[in-house]
Amino acid sequence: MFGQLILWGCIILEAGLLVRGLLTKLAFRYPVFYCYISFVLLQSLLRFFVRLHYPNFYPWAYWITELLGVVVGSVVVFEIYKIGLAAFPGTAKMARRVLYVLFVLAITKVAVDTWIAPNWHRMGTTGELELGLRAVQAISIVALITLFMVYSIRFGRNLKGILLGYGIFVSLRLLVLVFAGADTGWQGWLSRVLPPINSIAYFAVLLVWLSQLWSYQENPVQGESAKLEQGYQRMSAATRQKLRDARGYLGKAVR
Amino acid sequence: MLILSMSIVIGILLMAMLFFLTARDWVEKRKRTEEAKLTEADETAGCPEGFVERIVSRDDWEFVHKTGSPGLENLFRKERKDVALTWVRETASGIREIMKQHSAYARQSADLDAGTEAKIMFLYGELRVLCGALTLLIHIAGPMHARGLAGYASKLSQRMGETQRALQAVAKRPEEVYEMGSR
């Protein structure tokens, strides 16, 4: 009963999020994210329909839509990076390289797993596949947050909300997948406790998204756009020199 | 098993990062309030010439020791330790300021080099660890036993101020920074 309540609550919130997105035109500013929400809404309805009328096909429907959701979700990470770093071409280039490497690694892993295990569509193997992809998503988000923090890059309420909500969702989903197979000891206990927590957390994530994306808020203007193309190498050389000096002095002081 | 353990670490790390991201605005607001209390002179002047040498000097300690008052000795030790720790904190803060200013200018650059940035980050991390080690040394052995601090302290403080000014000038005259950096 409680599960059904959460399920329908999520569907209502997802629909509300989409309606607000269209009304505030945020759906056109963050198209991938709103495509993702539309996908998740359709996914929930489809799963419900299949479970009701074709219960034998439910595991298939579940895992296929789940894997598609991971793929669409990965594009959301790219959208966050693209919009968040739009004003910083150098930082964006660096982040793009890191993200490409991570996703190429993930795709390679999927390809290898499929090749090694031709019956990969079985529930257990598909779960492992999702675990690998979610881990890559989590690493990508960690890398992005690190960049945002190191370079003190600020972003508006909307983007922060998307990042925060999706990050919470990915981290919890990752933990659910890690303990999914366990049935004894504390791991077994976690495997039973985490899925309902995950559902409630997803409901909370939808509330975060709805509140943070209720209206449009422009991303803050990030300082002066100095022309540093020629000065970067010199500036970084100066920084390194000064940090080395500081190391020399501190090192001597410790001795 | 390794993949599962790594996944747990990544999941928890992501949650922690999200927490820090959320807390960042609050922390920065608090920092801005604290920084507003400091004057420009306070931030860049550093310690006066010879000040730190005096703080870690054994002369004062020997003078206090000769009085034969344990209470006075304890008070002296505590005061000196506090001052030395304040110096390390200020030095660490100066290093943080160098990185902050570097990041603020570097993020605007179109040809940001990942290798160079990684080297700078590594150097910065090393310095923070060094500051931590110094703090520990002062706590354990006391400032009088870390005599090597003397002489370097004031020079370092001055260099920190110099670096801050140099980085502030980068957008206008990159050549000047290069000259200062290659000195």
Write up what this structure looks like.
The complex is a heterodimer of chains A (255) and B (183). Helices cover 80% and strands 0% of the residues of chain A. By secondary structure, chain A is mainly α. In chain A, helix 1 packs parallel to helix 8. Chain A is globular and about 70 Å long. At the A-B interface, helix 5, helix 6, helix 7 and helix 9 of A face helix 1, helix 5, helix 6, helix 7 and helix 8 of B.
| 3D shape of chain B | elongated
Strand content of chain B: under 5%
Low-confidence stretches of chain B: 39-45, 173-183
Return residue spans of chain A where pLDDT drops below 50 for at least 5 consecutive residues.
none
List the helices and strands and how they pair.
The complex is a heterodimer of chains A (255) and B (183).
Chain A: H1 2-23, H2 26-29, H3 31-53, H4 58-84, H5 89-116, H6 123-150, H7 157-178, H8 185-212, H9 232-254
Chain B: H1 2-37, H2 40-45, H3 51-56, H4 58-66, H5 70-106, H6 114-141, H7 152-168, H8 174-181
Helix pairs in contact in B: 5-6, 5-7
Task: Give me some keywords for this one.
heterodimer, A: 255 residues, B: mainly alpha, 8 helices, elongated, disordered C terminus
The gist of it:
The complex is a heterodimer of chains A (255) and B (183). With 255 residues, chain A is an all-alpha fold. Chain A has helices at residues 2-23, 26-29, 31-53, 58-84, 89-116, 123-150, 157-178, 185-212, 232-254.
